[in-house]
Amino acid sequence: MRFENTLQCVKCGKDLKKIKEGYSCGRHKFLGDIPDFILNKKELEKEFNAQETAVGNYGGIQTNKAITMSWRNWKKKLIVDKKGLVLDNGCGPGKLSLVIPEGNVIVGSDISLDMLREAKKRIKYLVRAQAEKLPFKDKTFDVVYTDSMLHHLKNPEDGVKEIFRVLKDDGIAVVSETHAALVNRKLRRDAYKDTKRFGPWHKNFEKEELIKIIKPYFEIYSMENVSYLGYMYEGTNRKLKCNKLLMAGFLGFDKIISNIPVVKNQSWHIILKLRKK
To answer: How many CB atoms lie within 10 A of CB 212?
Structure first.
């Protein structure tokens, strides 16, 4: 794949060509081994700092088998059968690429250079860009995965519009987001007060709120509540190493909970699978 064929200038919309230092439209240059397309870094400074802290925690998560069990358990639920050119939109450290099947070409985008440097261990094609201003041509991707990213945005609908724009007409978009359930509202609200770990626009979506910003652009063909006791054990136990046997037990209960009407709505996350209208 010629990566430059997927790219467009975020300033003028023209096609980009590969140059020695990065990419250029002839008028504007986007430089670096991970090309930088962010236009307003000052506005995002607090978010950059929060993401840097998250990368600092990543090493411990990577080596903890119990936490790996937890995230793999529900990240696999995001994956769709459609294959082709895939955008991991808000890729963070690139963990989702570990469960995306072979046969796909993955492109990762994130605002955090620290996250992208970690993702480079797993993803070949990367850009540093805002989700509200992606540097890709219209109708480029067969699948767009947007995992736990919209809740970082000042205006999440702008992020949804960009997913719509870069997705092919017959493509599939998958959005996984935080879910404001009765059991987690206070815990998340209190956690978001920690400005070192969470950016200024961090939020927790009501299901109806998330559907409202998605429905003008997409048909929702699948909606699933995910993450219960296993995620709660992981998220509230950051200072101690999670136990693998306990996690297996919690995930077993999670499978039961996910099949109980009403109770299943008390999830920490929600996954929506989408087609263009």
So the answer is: 12
